[in-house]
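Backbone Fold Data
Goal — fold tokens
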Amino acid sequence: MFKFDEIDQELLRMLQADSKKTNKEYANKLGLSTTAVYERIKRLEKSHVINKYVALVDKKKVNKAFVVLCHVKLVQHIKDNVLQFEREILKLEEIAECYHVSGDYDYILKIHVEDMEAYRAFMVSKLTVIANIGSTQSTFIINEVKHTTAIDI
């Protein structure tokens, strides 16, 4: 388990809010030297607390604002079926997130497509052709009330 102090926590909050600032900008806000901030960031990266840096894209501007949560139930929840399903899901670019869950369904997928027609085409030609899917249930996002990539530190 990685040991955080209050400065690490604040630095992680700042990086999650905007990782494009310079180490000097973080240092000024934290009251540290640029070198101290650099070393803290490297330690967080080396320990895999920070996994990677990404650009967050506006779904509307790239024409992928139609978001669907698709619940999937497998025919049988046995190891081979689970592993095969997961391998196939990893190949589908429309799926942004996939969770193996408890409850009535086995998986919840978060899918980004252009519109309802594109979702239907995705379902018919890509998702439902995967072996061992017993049933699906789709929920269409009406309005995104809250979306964050930040984890509360």
About this structure: The chain has two domains: 6-46, 66-140.
